[in-house]
Design goal:
35% helix, globular, Wheat Germ Agglutinin (Isolectin 2), domain 1, 60s Ribosomal Protein L30, Chain: A, two-stranded antiparallel ribbon
Length: 204
């Protein structure tokens, strides 16, 4: 079985993420395409903003390569379950939404079945070897395919997110833990955190 050799330009993203996988490569290619499309450099202090629509491996490549991070406030997670990455430049107002084409190098039905067995710990050594071989082929394809085969480049249907704000902290009157003011709820006249407030829903 031919092992996927990690290219030098991908190595730092792999070190940051912890392992190499197809998902990380998708994020890596999206970040590089955003750099080229918007003529941008790694963010230092919210010059960029990224909106990601999944919490999968590729997001780590966006954080590492573009400098858009959760802690800095310029990485926004919108859980749509899609390999879609929207990058904004604040200085020019330009943006691009990169949507991964799911059929690009997609796993075969056999590969999906093998992945379930490997992840579930029931795969035989032969099945594990076949799974790794298919994964290596997919990673090679994702790393070398033309960008237009991998992504649809679109304009986002939403506006540039505002810059991160620093809010006052308030002590929850139930558990006593310090909480960001906009995350408090008023329950029976007390200011309480989300964990202490009973969720309200209509059964759906």
């Amino acid at each position: 079985m031919e092992k996927f050799e990690i290219p030098a330009e991908l190595a730092e993203s792999v070190r940051f993420h912890g392992h190499v996988c197809p998902g990380l490569i998708i994020g890596y290619r999206a970040a590089r395409l955003a750099e080229k499309t918007l003529d941008l450099h790694r963010d230092r202090d919210e010059e960029l903003a990224a909106v990601v629509e999944n919490d999968a491996c590729g997001v780590d490549a966006i954080q590492w390569l573009l400098g858009c991070t959760l802690g800095k406030g310029n990485l926004i997670f919108r859980d749509q379950g899609k390999h879609a990455f929207t990058i904004f430049r604040r200085d020019t107002g330009k943006a691009v939404r990169l949507v991964f084409k799911g059929q690009a190098g997609a796993s075969t039905p056999e590969g999906i079945a093998l992945r379930r067995k490997v992840m579930g710990g029931t795969a035989t050594p032969d099945e594990t070897a076949r799974f790794e071989e298919q994964k290596n082929k997919r990673m090679h394809y994702l790393m070398t395919a033309p960008a237009e085969e991998l992504f649809d480049c679109k304009q986002p249907g939403f506006e540039l997110p505002s810059r991160a704000r620093i809010f006052d902290s308030v002590v929850c009157e139930s558990c006593g833990e310090v909480t960001m003011e906009p995350r408090l709820r008023l329950v029976d006249g007390k200011k309480v955190c989300l964990a202490c407030a009973e969720p309200y829903h209509r059964g759906w």
